[in-house]
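WARN no homologs supplied; continuing
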Amino acid sequence: MAVNRTLWKEPLRKDYVPNWHCPSCSGGYLRLQPDTLHALQTRSSLKDQDADCWDPDWIRLRFTALLKCQNENCQESVSVAGLGKVEMMQISGNGDFDYVELYYPDFVKPSPNFIRVPKECPPAVRDELSKAFIAAWGDFSSAATHIRTCIELLLDFLKEPRIKLTKQKRRQSLTLHQRIKNFGNKDKEISDALEAIKWVGNVGTHSSDISQDDVFDALDIIEFVLEETLVSRRKNLLALAKKVIKKKGRHRR
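OK structure emitted
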């Protein structure tokens, strides 16, 4: 299931939170806690009010809020912060319009999962993904770097070597690019997917020229990789086990 870009880019309002699943139980939805959303205008927004042509939609805000999981058996709490603005919106079915404050998070901790993380996912990869989810709200370069680290850790889990022996019998470290190419000998499709993630990660590590959509693209790809390498692999091994058991049963007869 790809990243739901519409959901994660939707703003909060004083009386509304998008249907974000709880990051802890994944079953309940996060809801705004009463009287916890606080906002103040930025310095530049206050100065803009001196202009003769000033309009309310010039207002820019900084906000914080607390969310809580609605699941009574969970009740996880989540901190949110970011920027807000004022927009003219329809507020009723009668066609009435008014100015409404919209709040766009650039920090959510702990963050909901943007993608499905299979239960077979190694803990180290899962932890790195959690960091990527938090950073994906506002620190896109950092998010891309965390996702790049995920594929290094995944290759470790899949037993792809980090070193090789040279002709002189010396141990030589392999780059991530080399490890990905070597994995292509086992699965070219997955190797190509990992290379795409690595490219996004490299841009995030060495440049600020990366967007949230770039991060979401990388998450879409790593979700596919995790599904194919962990879940499908497990299914294939279980099918093989059943085949072996069935064959062994025939030999007994």
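The beta strands are 30-32, 38-41, 60-69, 77-90, 97-109, 163-165, 171-173.
OK
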